[in-house]
Amino acid sequence: QPVNTTSSDEYEYIVVGSGPGGGTLASRLARAGHKTLLIEAGDDQSANLNVTVPGYMAAVTEDKKLRWDIFVNHYKDQQRAQRDPKYVWETSPFEYHVGPGAPDGAEPRGILYPRAQTIGGCGTHNALIWILPHESDWNNIAGITGDSSWSAANMKQYEQKVFSWLHTQPTDPTILINDLSLAQQYVAGAAAAGIGPDPINAVTGLVNLLLNDPNSQINPQRDSTEGFFQVPLTMNAGTRTGVYQLIKETVKQGYPLTVQTNTFVTKIVIDQSNSTAPPKATGVEFQKGKYLYRASPLSVQKNPSTAGSAKATREVIVSGGAYNTPQLLKLSGIGPKQELEQFKIPVIKDLQGVGKNLQDRYEIPVNVQHTKDFNILKGCTFDSKPHDQCLKQWQNNPYILGQRGAYATNGLAAAIVKRSSYASDSNTDLIIFGGPVNFDGYYPGWAEHAIADHKHFSWYTLKAHTRNHAGTVELRSADPFDPPSVNFNYFDTGTTENGADQLDLQAIVQAINTSRSALAEYSHYGLLGGPPFTEEAPGPAVQTEAELQDYVKDRAWGHHASCTTPIGSDNDPNAVLDGQFRVRGVDGLRVVDASVFPQIPGVFIQAPIYIISEKAADVILSAAK
Ligand SMILES: Cc1cc2nc3c(=O)[nH]c(=O)nc-3n(C[C@H](O)[C@H](O)[C@H](O)COP(=O)(O)OP(=O)(O)OC[C@H]3O[C@@H](n4cnc5c(N)ncnc54)[C@H](O)[C@@H]3O)c2cc1C
């Protein structure tokens, strides 16, 4: 592909990646008057209906303009990995076969892990769920670093800062109660959580239950409170919100923020000329062009690119996300010496922890099929074509949430929150979402499958505070456009000390049992008139503890990859960052994104990322004074 050279430019700060981590930070730095360059591999998709319509949250992850297909291994042993029916084979570039029976010559790829390249990063294609972390998540970092500014009490201010520009709201209950079958599933879920309303007043009871806010600011026991809750979403009047809006507003209002889209950073430039000082990051090298990363299905077009560079007079901040941040650090000579040498990358700083400590949740569904369609989905084709009646309703009622219909929600309007018997502390560790979808994880075509008909309902679990920290992100080659090799090393192939793997596994099995008890409660609310259903997954054949454990081991997945350049204490050889997000041993370089956490925070991850980004802005601006 043609390559030209452009002249370099100079900024105070360069931020690589515009997701919840980088986008928030770059906007804050610019709003404080600093000349900032925000570099993003993707482009602006804020006018794309797949982005703005919450009901398209599945479709958007398959949109070629945003999507990066990253394939990961849950197990290194490929035979074991292929027990998962979601295992993917590539038959020709970006054409896939899912599950057993792949045609001859197909290449084994692993499990699809959706990622986004666009302004706002994965915050622009995610499921919109907004749940704050637990206090212990912050207090743990305070303990590890000895820095009390990480205490939960101090972190509140950053949470408030996020709320100053990011709008969140739950699904409007009136959208739900128009569908009595759905209402019946939800009240049954509340019953399984021990707070089911009286069947005679089920609908009013449900409306009241949906006032329960899992982010309650007034309940001092919020982190340990079990029950049935609404699900707050990054949404305003039924339209998606995210950091992409803050970035665009920051530019529009004239702050010194330059957003360079369609630009892929290939290397951090590091000056080693001062032999008496640590190496110092002074800028970045990049290639400007569309869809350059080979995870993009549009990279097959082999678009032209132009080489360029930019200088940072103060700092470079890497915010490429849990996979790309460690990859970029390694390509720039910062990472485990032995791995860098293997790829002939000159070692600038031997930091053993880069790309280790990868963590995620474990997720698993219980899916049923009703004999009749859900009313709420009538006319919804999820494809923005002229026949998509639900899109018309959404478009024709732009301001009143309750009138926008099924697309003014991500479909997962309520959740059971529980503390399993295997939780490591007093916090709740299971969240079980209910929604009219057929969701069984990520694989090519998952979105079409999830909404192919209107008869399915899913109770779907995320296990918080998982104990496995044995995942890795390693270079596949020294070519910056090659996605890295990602191994999660699930369950018994990962962290097993003190029975860690079994404790996580048993907790998830408990969640399946809770989901099934929610389904069993459905008939108690028969007055609502919902149709019968049959369980499809795990299915009636999967009953004993051993069968359920095998089911989970073979099919669980995650989508909150994190912790790959962790903050750690001075005496931790695997600590990559200090408590101020600084890369240890390299001046002028920080990481601000999902990678920074020593342990995966809370139940959902975007809220803690936005919060740490606000903190990082504070830290960086204080240092600049
Ligand atoms: C399908 C899906 C649904 C999700 N749903 C939820 C949810 O409902 N709630 C929740 O809390 N979390 C959710 N998440 C997770 C959450 O969205 C991510 O964890 C979060 O966005 C990560 O933020 P980040 O800033 O670390 O990185 P990202 O959001 O991944 O942003 C990184 C950005 O950096 C860019 N980039 C990377 N490398 C380079 C480079 N070398 N040069 C230039 N640019 C680069 C990328 O293009 C990207 O835009 C979901 C994730 C997925 C995949």
UniProtKB/TrEMBL annotation:
Single GO term (MF):
flavin adenine dinucleotide binding
Q: Which InterPro entries match?
A: FAD/NAD-bd_sf, GMC_OxRdtase, GMC_OxRdtase_N, GMC_OxRtase_C
Cofactor(s) the protein requires to work:
FAD
Record's keyword annotation contains Heme: no
Q: Which sites bind FAD?
A: V265
Its domain of life reads: Eukaryota
**Keywords on record:** FAD, Flavoprotein, Signal
Using the record's annotation, list all stretches that form the Glucose-methanol-choline oxidoreductase N-terminal domain: 321-335
PANTHER family recorded: DEHYDROGENASE, PUTATIVE (AFU_ORTHOLOGUE AFUA_5G00630)-RELATED, GLUCOSE-METHANOL-CHOLINE GMC OXIDOREDUCTASE
Family, as annotated: Belongs to the GMC oxidoreductase family.
Task: Name it.
Answer: Alcohol oxidase
Could you tell me which species this protein originates from? Answer: Acaromyces ingoldii
